[in-house]
Amino acid sequence: MPYDQTRGRFIYETAKSLSKLADVKVFLPQARYPKLSMLRPRTYVYGDLSENYSLPDLDVDAFSYTALPVVSRGLNGVVSSRQLTPRIRAFKPDIVIGYWVYPDGHAALRSARALGIPCVIGALGSDIHVRQGINTVMTRHTLKQADSVVVVSDAMRHYTADKYGTQADKIHVIVNGFNTEVFQLRDRQTARLALNIPDDSEVIAYVGRFIEAKGLIELVTSFGEMCRTRPKLRLALIGSGVLEDRLKALLSEKQLLDKVFLPGGLQPTQVAQWLAASDVLTLPSWSEGYPNVVVEGVACGRPVVATDVGGTREILHEGNGILIPPKNVEALTRALTQALDTNWDHQAIANGIRRSWDDVASETLGVCEKLLQKAERK
Questions:
Q1: Antiparallel, parallel or unpaired: β 304-307 and 171-173
Q2: Three-state DSSP class for 164?
Q3: What pLDDT was estimated at residue 54?
Q4: Which of 126, 206, 234, 262 has its CA 20 to 30 A from that of 4?
């Protein structure tokens, strides 16, 4: 999204690579809330998206549907589908893929059913982990009714089957990729020079949305404790989100603002430069699917300190990072200290991961083709 650079990157990269293999059109729905701030979402960065919105290398049709916080939650998928169905009908696809299970995936499923074509639902992480109330009900319904479900880790495969009762044989694991031309081992000194970071600094980087569930309060608390004994320690918080003002207030209260970089939400090439300049990447989330930023950090040869949630343990091992329990400041402090004091083999870390978005697209197309073959046999 233009107003939040931390959202939707996985879907964009997958769709862009898929468009090399098939005729792809992206329909981008957005809930449109009233202009009064009190009637707009507070859990994520919200902005109005122009219907002329475009993305490089993709055929995009963006549209909005009317919504109200909480009140319309159970109907958002239905309302969105009413606008989506004629758009899909005009495109005449063989199959529909809906990412973000509810409401977007549900809308895609309803439209596909109306048009008599198969539907694959892609679950990313928080769209199945961070659910409550009617969202849980609608997520379960969507996953059960989908023809196939794609998840990004083995941990999510088991969770989707156990939590939502999704039929196990229709769940497919397609692990995220990364841009291999952007995220790779680069010289730290050169990166620091470009970013005006003193060469003798110790730099911890975080990349992602600024929300409480990413463990940012724990990270700032841990960072403050570490600064007492590490005067050259610096923290780079790369991203944006609804927690930003609270974070700045906390940093100011702890007199840490002059030790923290806040460059905002960045494009992948800029993120890669910050990763190159860092000593350690951290992601102290409360929940994850298969965190792309961890993959990108490893691809850049940087050790990662992350919480042992979701599919993170499918990426990290003793040679490239440290896993800790979530919501534990002491464990986070110990792990970050250990990571900074360890002599890591950065080249070996970077060499340990090789998976492109083209790989993701090829496997996604494979799921679609099998589903179409199954439909033809009926």
A1: unpaired
A2: helix
A3: 86
A4: 234
Question: Is 182 inside a domain boundary?
Answer: no
Same domain, 213 and 346: yes
173 and 103 in one domain?
A: yes
Q: What is the pLDDT of residue 326?
A: 97
Q: Which two tokens stand for residue 159?
A: 């969770």
Three-state DSSP at 3 gives coil
Q: Is the dihedral of CA 356, 362, 363, 364 positive or negative?
A: positive
Host H or E run for residue 137:
helix 134-145
At 56, list the tokens. Answer: 């490089």
Length of the chain: 378
Write out the two tokens for 91: 């495109």
Q: Is-contact 38 46, C-beta < 8 A?
A: no
Yes or no: say if 371 and 149 are a contact pair by the CB < 8 Å rule: no
15: helix, coil or strand?
helix
Low-confidence ranges of the chain (pLDDT < 70): 1-7, 36-49, 378
What pLDDT score does 127 carry? 86
- SS3 category, 31: strand
Indicate whether 148 belongs to any domain.
Answer: yes
Residue with tokens 């950065």: 346
Q: Which domain holds residue 72?
A: 9-177+357-377
Residue 72: the pLDDT is 80
Tokens describing residue 319: 């040679």
Report the number of distinct structural domains present in the chain: 2
Tell me the β-bridge partners of 122.
99, 150
| CB distance 176 to 10 below 8 Å | yes
242 close to 210: Cβ distance less than 8 angstroms:
yes
Other CB atoms closer than 10 Å to residue 130's CB: what's the count?
Answer: 13
Q: Is 269 helix (H, G, I), strand (E, B) or coil?
A: helix
Amino acid found at 261: F
Q: What is the pTM of this model?
A: 0.85
Q: What is the structure's pLDDT at 44?
A: 54
On whether the CB atoms of residues 349 and 303 are closer than 8 A, the answer is yes
pLDDT score recorded for residue 47: 62
CA-to-CA distance for 135 and 129, rounded, in angstroms?
11
- What six digits make up the tokens of 185? 């081992």
Per-residue confidence (pLDDT) for residue 31, from 0 to 100:
87
